[in-house]
């Protein structure tokens, strides 16, 4: 259902329409845009606080820039809802993040206004600089290139790598630092302190204001005064600003801090910046959740992506369970880690900016000296963990599977080659759901399988997660545990922990004709599939392998000795994944069987609910049942 936009917003289908309005009307347009986001997200879900915080900035940018000719790059893109709405997707916005609908992030194949595909953080400056360099090469002097990056994303190493390059680039690049003091959780680290300092420091701002006032006075005296101005400016910059401003020190002209909610002032500033050549940064101070009281004044982490809510009362809807619910895997991880850490003082916790998402916040609250949020810094998180391990500590480094892609070399070079005892917990493994392809945890099994010393495990339920975590503390090397977004299956999950011999799978169900080998939580789909199959007189065997590496050779000898028809199921990329490992093992050990591998195919799978995506890829319960039926019908060729 398309939600009615406000009176002015209704007339805007592109930035060209926006430009038809007067500057004075931008406040009303901003208000209507904000309301439209509230109306939609409250009913259809999605990211929230971040988009509200950049409403004025979004309006001002599209008012001043000549998009899509000028290149506007949003970092992460979870804040780009206003941009989507102003650039022709207002009438589709109710399909945001829904299966078959528009993406929750900017996406090049969705709109010419989406200059760069995003979802992972800290890429915007590099991408915009690449675009700016291309314009310079092509001699296109007028084109603007703007990266909008949050203070949280600015903590990512890539942002610094890009600024290091940008500062010597002589390009038309504007970096807009959207500083709301928040990541998903409160932002952390020395950079955050620095930004707070320059936003609030009286001395810094007084000097800066006086400089600009002085320049303003001189500018009234005409051309000759311009020379004085530039000399004065140059001298002051060289001394005061360069020494005291991080960005100036990197050769990026620094402007701000400005109020990121004053749309008219933003229009003025951006119009001026367009005419200043070279790389520059505008520091905007904004409030996450701005303009919607529950988000602005309440828990900003909750309002990052609140789920559905009553827009009038601000009540976030929670499903009222009729029976005891199984916990989320992330919470089992968080509580179990604290339990283990209480018994073993070597255990430490590390998260790169996902304390709430990974439930590492449980340990951070209970044991603040032993659990760290290191900012959006996956590479650092892994190597920092490696450093801890060299000193005999046992770090549990928890990174979403998709974000672990950032730290691949660190896993290989810093952890595995030195065989260090780092426990890598890969949350959100498998389809992430509504976040879509940028966030699906599809590639961890294939990419980890080839790493020497690496153990790869996945629990089918909460009890196994606890046991694997316990087992990891006893293994002298890198140990990875992957588990999905969402709930497990055991309401009574606080089971006593025990060691699982490394590489040992288990039989879940004896059966005939077909053996189903599963890895991880997806094994519960096989259990569901059996219900319909049993009614049809089909009774496949089911093995929960628990480890992809090392595989359980003993169990596999038993399976391939007994079955000529085997199905493997994984919530991960098929190419090089768990099924591939089983087939490799089969041929290496001289067996031959008909093997069907179910999992994520070699193509981009878009967004939707997890179950919708599993269905699309043929490994939901019905897909598994269908694979069994097909296999039973097919005669094996000799
Ligand atoms: C590489 C990577 N790590 C972690 C995340 C998860 N993540 C998404 S948004 C976000 C916070 C970003 O903070 P900021 O850039 O300040 O944006 P804000 O939400 O405050 O507007 C995080 C940690 C991500 N998208 N990419
Ligand atoms: C934009 C982003 O990367 C995060 O906000 C992500 O959507 C969080 O995912 P979870 O909701 O699974 O924690
Ligand atoms: Mg922020």
From TrEMBL:
EC id: 2.2.1.7
Record: residues binding Mg(2+): 151, 180
Chain positions recorded as thiamine diphosphate binding sites: 78, 119-121, 152-153, 180, 292, 378
Matches recorded under CDD domains: TPP_DXS, TPP_PYR_DXS_TK_like
UniProt record similarity statement: Belongs to the transketolase family. DXPS subfamily.
The protein's role, per its UniProt record: Catalyzes the acyloin condensation reaction between C atoms 2 and 3 of pyruvate and glyceraldehyde 3-phosphate to yield 1-deoxy-D-xylulose-5-phosphate (DXP).
Name of the protein in its database record: 1-deoxy-D-xylulose-5-phosphate synthase
Gene that produces this protein: dxs
């Amino acid at each position: 259902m398309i939600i009615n936009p406000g009176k002015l917003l209704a007339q805007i289908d592109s930035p060209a329409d926006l430009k038809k309005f007067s500057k004075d009307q931008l406040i009303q347009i901003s208000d209507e845009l904000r309301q439209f986001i509230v109306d939609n997200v409250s009913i259809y879900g999605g990211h929230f606080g971040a988009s509200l915080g950049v409403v004025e900035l979004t309006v001002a940018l599209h008012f001043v820039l000549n998009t899509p000719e000028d290149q506007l790059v949003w970092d992460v893109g979870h804040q780009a809802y206003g941009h989507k709405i102003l650039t022709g997707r207002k009438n589709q916005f109710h399909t945001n993040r829904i299966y078959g609908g528009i993406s929750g992030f900017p996406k090049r194949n969705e709109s010419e206004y989406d200059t760069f595909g995003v979802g992972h953080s800290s890429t915007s400056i590099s991408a915009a600089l690449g675009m700016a360099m291309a314009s310079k090469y092509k001699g296109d002097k007028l084109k603007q290139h703007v990266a909008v990056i949050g203070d949280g994303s600015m903590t990512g190493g890539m942002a610094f790598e890009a600024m290091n390059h940008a500062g010597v680039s002589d390009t038309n690049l504007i970096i807009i630092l959207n500083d709301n003091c928040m990541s998903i959780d409160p932002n952390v680290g020395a950079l955050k302190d620095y930004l707070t300092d320059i936003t609030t420091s009286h001395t810094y701002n007084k000097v800066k204001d006086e400089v600009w006032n002085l320049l303003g006075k001189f500018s009234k005296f005409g051309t000759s005064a311009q020379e004085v101005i530039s000399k004065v400016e140059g001298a002051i910059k060289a001394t005061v600003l360069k020494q005291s401003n991080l960005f100036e020190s990197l050769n990026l002209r620094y402007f701000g801090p400005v109020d990121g909610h004053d749309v008219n002032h933003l229009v003025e500033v951006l119009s001026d910046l367009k005419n200043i050549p070279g790389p520059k940064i505008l520091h905007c101070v904004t409030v996450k959740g701005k303009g919607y009281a529950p988000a602005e004044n309440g828990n900003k982490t909750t309002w990052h992506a609140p789920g559905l809510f009553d827009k009038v009362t601000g009540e976030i809807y929670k499903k009222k369970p009729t029976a005891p619910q199984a916990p989320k895997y992330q919470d089992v991880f968080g509580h179990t880690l604290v339990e283990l850490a209480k018994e073993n003082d070597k255990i430490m916790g590390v998260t790169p900016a996902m304390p709430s998402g990974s439930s590492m916040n449980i340990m951070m609250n209970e044991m603040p000296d032993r659990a760290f949020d290191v900012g959006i810094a996956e590479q650092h998180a892994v190597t920092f963990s490696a450093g801890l391990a060299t000193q005999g500590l046992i770090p549990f480094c928890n990174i979403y599977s998709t974000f672990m892609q950032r730290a691949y070399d660190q896993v290989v070079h810093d952890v595995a080659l030195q065989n260090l005892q780092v426990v890598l917990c890969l949350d959100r493994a498998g389809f992430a759901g509504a976040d879509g392809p940028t966030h699906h945890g599809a590639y961890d099994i294939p990419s980890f399988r080839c790493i020497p010393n690496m153990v790869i495990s996945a629990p089918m339920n909460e009890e196994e997660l606890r046991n694997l975590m316990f087992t990891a503390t006893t293994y002298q090397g890198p140990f990875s545990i992957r588990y999905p977004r969402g709930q497990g299956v055991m309401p009574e999950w606080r089971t006593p922990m025990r060691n699982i011999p490394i590489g040992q799978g288990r039989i879940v169900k004896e059966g005939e004709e077909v053996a189903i080998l599963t890895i991880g939580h997806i094994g519960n789909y096989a259990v569901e599939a059996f219900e319909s199959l049993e009614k049809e007189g089909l009774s496949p065997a089911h093995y929960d392998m628990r480890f992809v590496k090392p595989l359980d050779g003993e169990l596999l000898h038993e399976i391939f000795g007994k079955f000529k028809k085997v199905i493997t199921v994984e919530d991960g990329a098929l190419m090089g994944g768990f099924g591939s490992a089983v087939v490799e093992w089969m041929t290496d050990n001289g067996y031959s069987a008909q093997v069907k591998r179910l999992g994520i195919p070699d193509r981009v799978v878009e967004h939707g609910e997890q179950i919708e995506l599993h269905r699309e890829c043929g490994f939901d319960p019905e897909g598994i049942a269908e694979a069994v039926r097909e296999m039973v019908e097919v005669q094996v060729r000799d």
